[in-house]
Every structure is written in structure tokens, then in C-alpha cells.
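EI: anyone free to look at a 314-residue chain?
SC: sure, send it
EI:
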Amino acid sequence: MIRERILVIGASGQIGVELTLALRKMYGNNNVVASDLREENELLKGTGPYVSLDVMNKEMLHVQVIRQNITQIYLLAAILSATGEKNPNLAWHLNMQSLLNVLDIAREEKIYKVYWPSSIAVFGPTSPKQNCPQQTIIEPTTVYGISKYAGEFWCNYYYQRYQVDVRSLRYPGLISYKSAPGGGTTDYAVEIYHEALEEKQYTCFLKEDTYLPMMYMPDAIRATIELMEAPAANISIRTSYNLSSMSFSPKEIGAAIKNYIPEFTMAYEPDYRQSIADSWPQSIDDSVARNDWGWKHEYDLERMTKDMLENLRK
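SC: here you go
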């Protein structure tokens, strides 16, 4: 039995915080090393080892992997869709080079499992809008989507050529009460809960009828760990798995919140993020993930809204 030593890169981000805590629960606090360029997230303090690490510095990353006897790497550092459009060159450079650094080190050090997230941003205006399938036309129009799609093929390449066991999920928009969103087009679905409680109103940067695939963070974390725990023989997709749980519009999430906060009101002022949202599918077919490794979501809009508001009130 391998004694797992896991490195989480980008541990202070929206996914990283909750994933690190979940992995520490499973593998023991000291066996999961959190790292980030930013300072340690408050929720991680005192729960296990933390190192300040720049994933773009390959030598330093390599030293840490050897020093910490790492057996698995979760690479979560990335520049997301809305932020990426403000600085496309930086987004491409960071999103690509960080992955290549990790894959190279994994190959050299025989790291036996790597996790790297992709996104629904790989899909573009020519992809099917409803129940977008695993294999389909993929022509992304954002630098984030382009970098994620290229990254999927690098993952596949390192698996085919060097047998690096890289696994990936195409995350939908992710919603969490624990950590702030990171500059994505679906961030409104996190902000809206905070504003509903504090201001009783919210101005949305997307149109009221913009449907997007979304997921509550507990489901996303569970999906990630279930994928990584699945036997290699069950993994048929070496680019990235479609993943889905719910799709809704700003109008629908507003209505769900009004059930708990009747005085809540919404306004709409669509900005540059509208065109990004319009280029993505409205719903995702994730039947391959369900068949290959038994993925099942637990949260719908109603259950998520109740949980979000309860936890934010605390």
C-alpha cells in the first residue's frame, strides 16, 4: 500500500480550500501539503502543512515534490474566463506552463496520479446548447477555454506516451459559501447569495434568462475525489470528463432565494461576460462519467439555496 503524500497547488483558491480540507480528512492532515502563491487561506490555517509555491518556477516545484515525497498532485492554479479576457497572454502562459511543469515532473518522478481541472469553457458557440455530449464540436472562443482544451490534449498525450495517470473533469460553474469565486463568468451565482443576505438586492451581469450548467461545491469536491479514487481500468476518458448536476438562469436562482428572503429584488445589467456565457452550452450530458465511475450528483437548486443561505447566515 502506497503511503499517499498529496500536493495541492492553488490550495487557497475557490476549489482548493475545500478540496484540501476533504483530502486531509481522508488521508490525514500531515499527508496533504497545501501550496499557493497567495497567503494561506484562513480556513486552512492549523489544519496541515502549507508551503508558499510558484507553480511557474519548475525547479522550486521539483524540489518540493522530492522533499515532500509527493505521490499525487492536484493542480488547481489557473486564470479563469472573465479575468483571462483582460490579459489573454498571461492567462495562456500561466494555464499552459503550469500544467506542463507538473506533467514533466510527474513523468520524471513517477508521480503516480495527477489531477487537473478542465471546464465547460472548452465548449464554444458551435457546440450543442442542450445536453452537450462528451464527444462533440469544440471550438472555444475565450483564452481560458482555449487553454483548457489544449491542456486536455496534453493530459491525454502524457498518459498515452509516458503513462502518467492524469485525470480531469470539465467543471460547470461552481458555487460555494466557504471561499470567494475567482473571476469566472458564473461568479454571479455566488455573489447573489451574499448580496441577498446583506443588501436584499442584486444587480446581475448576465441577462435573466441565461441558462448555464452549475454545481454546488460539495458535489464538485466529491466528484473530484471519486474520479481520483476510481480504478484506472474504469477511466475511459483521458482528456476530461463532462460533469453535470443542474442548470438554471439568474431569474430562477432569484426566485429560489425569494422563497427564503421575500423582500429580495433583482436587476440586470449585462456586461462583457454575457457574450462568454452565450458561447457556452446551457446543459451538459455527463452520462460517460456516470457509467465509467458511478458519478451521481446530490444537490439541485432548491437544496443548494437552502444550504447556502443557512451557512452564510452563520
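EI: The chain has two domains: 6-172+217-242, 174-214+245-313.
SC: 👍
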